[in-house]
Amino acid sequence: MEDNVMWNKIVFYDSVANSHPARYADHVLHILCTEGYMSFTFQHVRYNVVPSDYVIITNPALASDFSVSDDFDAVVMSMSDSFVTSMAIQSNYGIIGHLSLLRNPVMKLSQHDFRICLEDLWKLRERLNETSHLFHEEMLGHLLLVHILDLYDIHARSRKDLQVSERITSLLRRFIELLYNGEYIQNRSPKFYASRLCITPHYLSEICNKVSGKPASYWIDRFTMQEITRLLRQKELSLTEIAERMHFSSISHFSRYVQKRIGVYPTEYRNNILKK
After folding, report:
1. CB 139: neighbour CB atoms within 10 A?
2. Using the 8-state DSSP alphabet, how is residue 48 labeled?
3. What whole-number percentage of the chain has pLDDT above 70?
């Protein structure tokens, strides 16, 4: 059940099972565990969640197989990514946090940080239904801004040694935007992205490594495999059709690419999914 359906830029749910990733395609899912435990799969990795863990899933459609204990309880919220972007937060930290969450969506919070996040979310939930407020959207935007900056602070304190210039932030943001725009469907070479950014492939991988601990090729493959596994779940599509959509030169090339990155061939992956 949703707490609010009139204003869907921020939506709270009474359970994880009632969140709707397909309905709110551009939303980021937030789950702050307060009791019990939960597990889920995100990009082929199984995660276990306990009280004080904060889960932020930037693409909820890629999360699956949620399982919760009988005593599980959490604050569950989804928020529009485009709404957050429209707030134009003046910080270089957004792209750093974004890349980090793509790698691992579970943040381990101290009791102090847990209380801060819980209070932020309760305040948002409390004020969400005050639609008579003449500045409703602006008011919620500022409350959300406080929460986002709290999250930046929590994550930044865990990486005090990382200093990133505005130029590197801008380059990485543009690189990730190219991937979100689907360039990986036809272009899977770091050389292509470096050319679009007017830098060398070596420098692109260097700045990716500095901020995320992974080279540019890792992120290109990550986005590519997200799309491939999404297509493999659509049983009406043949492997040949998927290979063609993803611009692989042959079905054998496609199969080798998948096997190298997730350890199984496409047919085996699809069979395993369909058995569930």
Report:
1. 14
2. E
3. 88
Mention every residue, 6+ apart, whose C-beta is less than 8 A from residue 13.
1, 2, 3, 19, 76, 77, 78
Helix (H) or strand (E) holding 198: none
Q: What are residue 56's DSSP bridge partners?
A: 30
Q: Which of 157, 192, 224 is the last residue of a domain?
A: 157
Residues 6+ away with beta carbon under 8 Å from 106: 47, 49, 53, 54, 55
pTM: 0.73
Q: 4-15, pLDDT tens digit by residue? A: 444 678 889 988
Tokens matching residue 245: 């959509």
Q: Look up the domain containing 122 and give its range.
A: 10-157
Q: How far apart are CA 30 and CA 56, in angstroms?
A: 5
Tell me, yes or no, whether 76 and 138 share the same domain: yes
- Burial class of residue 138, CB neighbours in 10 A (0-12, 13-18, 19+): exposed
Residue 181 CB partners (closer than 8 Å, separation 6+): none
Is 222 a residue whose pLDDT tops 60? yes
